[in-house]
Amino acid sequence: MRISDALRGMALGCAFILAFPAVALDTKTAVAGLDTKSLQKESPAEAFKHGFDAYRQGDMGSAVQALQFAAENGNPLAQWKLGRMYQSGDGIGEDDLKAFQLFQKIANGYADQNPSDPSAPFVASAFVALGGYYRDGIPNSAVKSDPGTARQMYAYAASYFADADAQFRLAQMYYRGEGGERDPRQAARWSKVSADKGNVQGEALLGHLMFEGEGVQRQPVLGLAYLTVALHHAVPGQEWIREMQEHAFALATEQERRSALVLVKDRESKAGTH
Question: What is the pTM of this model?
C-alpha cells in the first residue's frame, strides 16, 4: 500500500508525498575492499548487513556502496540508514534532498507496516523526518515549507505507530498553531502521551501547559516538577526547556517550589532503583 492510500484511510489525504521524482543513487563507483560483482549477487538484506558491518568498522566507502545497493533494491533499513547518513553528513556528503527521497520511499512502501514489527520504529522515524522537511522546506529544491503537511506526517506517526517523538512534535505544532489552528487541548493530550513514554521534550511541554493551565486544569506544582525533570535530562539544542522551567520557577510560590522538588526527588529516586 502506498503512503497516499494508507493516509487516505485516516482522512489525511497525503497524495502530495508522491509528487517528487526519485533521486538516482550512484552505485556504479567501485570502492576499495568491496567487490561490486559479489555485492550484486547478495540479497538486499545481505547487502544491508554487509553495509552496516562496514559502517560500524569505519569503512565508510564500503558501507555507502553496500547500503546504496540494498536501498535501491527496496531494503527499508538500508533506506533509513542511508537517509540518516545523508541527513547528517555522516560518512557521506550531506544532502537533505536525497535524505528526503529515501525517507519518502520508506513512507510510500511501509506506511501500513504492523506497528509491532521490528522495522516499525524505522518507518515511524522516516515519517518524523519527512515532517521536519515539510515543516522547514529544503532550500533550492521542490520541497517547500508546508506546515499543514508536516502536521499530517507527525499525526500519522503519532497515531498509527505511537511514536513518542512524533507525538511531541504534533503537540508542539498544536501548541504553536503551526499547520492549522492553535489547540492547547490537543497539545496537552499529545504531550502527555509522549511524556508518559519518557520523552523529555514531551514532559517539558506538558509541564508548561500544566503550570500555565493551558488546555488542562492548572497544576503548578506538577507542572513545575515535569519541567524540572525535563531540564535535568535536556540535551544541547533544547534551551527552550530551560527557558520554560526558569519562567515557571520564577512565578511559582516558595511552597510550590518546595512541593515540586519533593516530586522530582521522589521520581528520580524511583528511577534509580530500576
Answer: 0.84
